[in-house]
Design brief:
The structure is a homodimer of 333-residue chains. Chain A has 3 domains: 3-55, lambda repressor-like DNA-binding domains (434 Repressor (Amino-terminal Domain)); 69-163 and 294-319, Rossmann fold, CATH 3.40.50.2300; 165-292, Response regulator (Rossmann fold, 3-Layer(aba) Sandwich). In chain A, α5 links the parallel β1 (69-74) and β2 (99-104). Helices cover 42% and strands 15% of the residues of chain A. Chain A is of the alpha/beta class and 333 residues long. Chain A is elongated. Chain A has helices spanning 12-19, 23-30, 38-51, 57-64, 80-95, 107-121, 165-178, 194-209, 224-235, 248-260, 294-309; strands spanning 69-74, 99-104, 125-129, 146-150, 159-163, 185-188, 218-219, 242-245, 270-272, 289-291, 316-319, 322-324. In chain A, strands 2-1-3-4-5-11 form a 6-stranded parallel sheet. A 4-stranded parallel sheet of chain A has the order 7-6-8-9, with helices on both faces. A two-stranded antiparallel ribbon of chain A has the order 10-12. Chains A and B meet through α4, α5, β2, α6 and α9 of A and α4, α5, β2, α6 and α9 of B. Chain A binds a DNA duplex (30 and 30 nucleotides) through α2 and α4.
DNA sequence: GACCTGCGTGGTAACGTCAACATGACGGGC
DNA sequence: GCCCGTCATGTTGACGTTACCACGCAGGTC
């Protein structure tokens, strides 16, 4: 670290000459080849440390064709879950020595463009975090790009990682039924969203299982604003006593609409959300919701991607969810 | 696109031979060199299109030393603003043909590790989005990494981009004063946060300017939970009639604490937040807050970084903020 | 007509790494 | 004592690109 302020970066050759070996041996040490004498290895490692050697990623990528970089495609939606997920993926990738390149994509056209950009950045594979745009088979999914899809349907060529939306939604609905509500209304996520469809399915299954009649589905777009908009109409109906919103942010909008309409939660109406974002515990009242384990999702998504890169067969991975009961749902009077 | 399913990717040489020129000429076309005959250029471009040629990033990086990749360091804090900012930066980088690598860093030790990782990914420069850990001069900021710092103090070697926290906070406080409140309490962000300090400064300046006495500062950690915790104590004091929270999420916690204590907002207490995250309009009541222009921040941060990479002198860039008045603050009875 | 200048183009080498092959030393089995 | 296998190491070339220099040609200037 003394006179290392040279302009040129230190390369394998520098390490080699310092350790008195060939460049190839240094390469073997760097890549953990077993064919190196322990004593030589130690000498090389010392030289690397002394010189502050760092392998040159680009050179290695050029030679091997592997960039050791993963991509992540995220939709521009302002959902809090995405950020949590991105963080988890970033950490999981870092742990495995992979860099992570982010690309944003809003809408289907942008998705193609996003893949384009990833291809051209030469990532080894990518995670698609874009629930709004299901990955149809064929053209839009580049054949040469290894993909893992999160919370989205995909053809069988791709691994899928997702929360167990269906079970979570079922648990939420059963919880409301158990509180004595005659039925449970559902504020679903947008048409075309896989997670939304799964949650709706879980809700429906729970009602069916209890022999109850499902009211018509109301649909929002994940935002609190849409929750409020739909909530205004729902608050008008006296037969609405239990509401299951497909995410916490829409539930927030519902809470406001109900409060404004003079229908107290949980006194008169019970509300349950989905996600358990950090703020949900401080909603008014604190929100009963279904927790997603984003860290686990991130881990599994990266694992699945590494598997895909290594040529393992794709599979679907389901991460459990858990009901968190708070004050927005209490036993019916 | 017909028989392009070869295993090897198409390189410059392929394009060159198809267009009947040398590789060097192709390189010149790709890099927009003026020294190319228009007719030749057209021929090369056609060949590139027909072959689906894409420049090999790694090879280029190896040769030029520039990776055309920017890094972004984000703290693990669950602040919604970070995600918005990251998106904006991703888009700005993409527009300029740069890839973006994300690295997470919680705490000061992690910051050094984050720089390490960025260095070894060979980014051309990085944006630091880590308000919790000010960048002291010297060791922790690697000399060979071009940096732009967002919302953080830094030494004069680095460009700084930030919202005009001080002016925003001043406007928020002046708004509350104008409503007739005898004074304004402040729920500040955590010690050590630059943005928090700036907002506190603006709050203080507004009170001083109006000749009012500043109550003691109460301090949270940006989370809604901390807002609620501090809010419980504040709600107990009858002399609290106006509250300015340093971010929206803490304001959410305050709203809950006040509601639980039976002190209606805005009837009895006025509350103003900071950030204008999407949910703030659906808080109970809808929150008056100070809007940050994240897209503009992202643009400017990337511009500043490109400047730093090109060796331009660092400067500090201030992005205006704007007060958004909603129902949580109304004229005092 | 010799000289220069500018332009479009091509040839060559090098960036740092790793795969393939080559080498040499040693030891064991016949 | 010879052959062969194993092991540790070295040599060479190539990945795709661009910087540098060189070349030939046209159109001027003296």
């Amino acid at each position: 670290m003394s006179e290392a302020e040279q302009s040129r970066r230190v390369s394998m050759r520098d390490v080699a000459s310092r350790a008195g070996v060939s460049g190839q041996t240094v390469s073997r040490v760097v890549n953990d080849s077993p064919r190196v004498d322990p004593e030589t290895r130690a000498r090389v490692e010392t030289a690397m440390r002394e010189l502050g050697y760092r392998p040159h990623r680009a050179a290695r990528a050029l030679r091997t064709g592997r960039t050791h970089t993963l991509g992540i495609v995220v939709s521009t939606l302002e959902t809090v879950g995405n950020f949590r997920m991105l963080q988890a993926v970033a950490d999981a990738a870092a742990t495995r020595g992979y860099a992570l390149a982010v690309v944003t994509a809003a809408g289907a056209a942008a998705l193609a463009e996003a893949f384009d950009r990833l291809r051209d950045q030469g990532v080894d594979g990518a995670i698609v975090l874009n629930e709004a745009t299901p990955l149809a088979r064929g053209a839009d999914a580049p054949a040469d790009l290894r993909l893992v899809v999160v919370d989205s349907p995909a053809d069988e060529r791709f691994a899928v990682v997702q929360s167990d939306h269906e079970a979570g939604a079922r648990a939420a609905t059963e919880h409301l039924i158990a509180l004595g509500h005659p039925t449970v209304w559902h504020l679903a996520g947008p048409e075309g969203s896989y997670a939304a469809a799964e949650r709706e399915r879980g809700w429906h299954a729970a009602l069916e299982g209890a022999g109850l009649v499902a009211p018509p589905v109301v649909r929002g777009d994940w935002t609190a604003a849409s929750g409020h908009r739909e909530g205004v109409a729902l608050a008008d109906r006296p037969d609405v006593s239990a509401l299951f919103a497909a995410n916490d942010q829409m539930a927030l909008g519902l809470l406001r609409a109900l409060a404004e309409a003079g229908r107290p939660v949980p006194g008169e109406v019970a509300v349950v959300g989905f996600d358990d974002i950090a703020d949900a515990a401080d909603y008014l009242p604190p929100l009963t919701t279904v927790r997603q384990d984003f860290d686990e999702l991130g881990e599994r998504a990266v694992d699945a991607l590494m598997g895909a890169i290594d040529g393992r067969a794709p599979r679907t991975d389901l991460v459990p969810t858990r009901l968190i009961v708070r004050e927005s749902s209490v036993p019916r009077r």
